[in-house]
Amino acid sequence: MGSSTVSAARRCVVWFDEFDQFLRAGGITLEMVKAMLAGPERQVVLLASMRSKEYDRYSSRQRDVTDAATWRAGREVLLHAGEPVELDRLWSPQEVGRARESDRDPRLKAAAQASDRFGVAEVLAAGPELLSDWMHAWHTGEHPRGAALVAAAVDCRRMGLHRPVGASLLVPLHEIYLSARGGAVLRPEPLEDALMWATAPVQGASSLLLPDPGGYLAFDYLIDLPGLPAIPESSWEVLLAAVAPEDAFDVGWAAVDLMRPSIALEAFDAARRHGVPDADYAHAIALGNAGQPLPAVHLLRQLHQQRNAQLGSDHPDTLAARHDIARYLAEAGRHAEAVALLDRLALDRQRVLGPRHTATLVTRSSKARFLREHGDAPQALRLFRELLPDMTAVLGPDHVDVLLARQEVGRTLGHIDRTSDALACITEVLHDQERILGGAHPHTLSTRFELALLVARSGDLREAMRQLQALLGDQERVLGLHSRTLSTRHQLGRLLAQTGEPERALEVLSEVLRDQERFHGPTHPRTLATRYDQLLVARRTQGPQTAAVMLAALRDDCRRALGSSHPLTRTVASAAGTT
Alpha-carbon Rg of the chain, whole angstroms? Predict the structure, then answer.
């Protein structure tokens, strides 16, 4: 049913299930919603349902990226709706009690009996039972091929593809998961049997794979499970080679969320070349995230001029472009220029959007962070402490952005050598993140990393190494080969050198460097930073002339990739001059 059909009807109710799929690029807009509801003597109701995780993408700025027009269009639609009704996963004791006493449906009564462990809706949909079936199917002689098909379909959704996956993609993709578990050793069943098992309903409810004329869709319950393993790199590659340009746009945003910069860049480039709306802006953001901040600034300035001409200087999208320009100027080491831009932007956002708008608060947070990186940590601390009460009043104490702002306070305390205060602050944030977000959430893992660095700064290098080793195991399980996992390994290499184990340190840093080059590319700032620390360790066993040549080469590479004003370039140039 199209919007024109709804607009022509006098009385109708339209239910948009999985509403986030209607908000993607080229999807429903506020104008379409108004047209469907317009007209005298009409009774039209539009209902929409979506997962909380997807709703949060529009209801709050959980992405540290741009206010892209697609995002804003979706947000405008949601803001136009009535007050949202949030259905908690767990029923209240009163609701469970009524369900237990009900004799009208034995399935409801049985689900209520299991509500101490699972949500009633989950049990009704057979979610826990299906999960158990999936895990058990990996065993030799069971349904390992079926389990691999489910794993591939689940990761398709985690990678941003929420439409049914055709067999032409799902079959080659599932081989990645089957091979990782042992392949032929598992004695996998024939493909036809695997699909029949995966699509079989349990207790007349859901199935692991939902069959559709266009292919197969993974059951919703599975994609939000905590502790799912990291998505294999080869899965991203296979998916990107197969999807349409408009799907590549969504895959790109999923890659941004999961910090896969090279994948995001490739996905947005494919979407941009085929004219997908907003893909050019997303491509510029991905370019900056991939370690090319100055080329990103160049593109963003052009896009800002376009928005200024088409939308006006006060439009939120035009203001967002100014924020992103400042962001990547700071990434390039041009902090003073970035802060000056944000000073002007803060005034404009406050005038246009108001002082309590999330975009205004984000501007203030960015300014404080850039000041700290520029060397003015005391001023940054003052700004963060002024911001935190305002952000808490607007978003609430448990909001992810408030937790991140508190983490920034702890980091800034560490920068001014108030290590004990920083440790107390970060420890408190970690406890709250574990309570609110869970131990496997990327933000929680990031705070553990910050805590370990502070422990090292306090002088307890062995305890810091112990914490980093424990963190690394969790990161590799949850994130896989990831920017943050590489950062943890990098810091372990540095601490090994500081504790008198240069040979092991050199081995660790060399391995990290190889993975950095593969993951980020040879000119990314993180790769160049690892290369610098590796050279500092290596020059202990090499002659001064060899070290001087290698440092000079690194200095030249930093200048070409980052510019002469970047802090890393200046650090390497100083070391090269004194070697």
Answer: 26
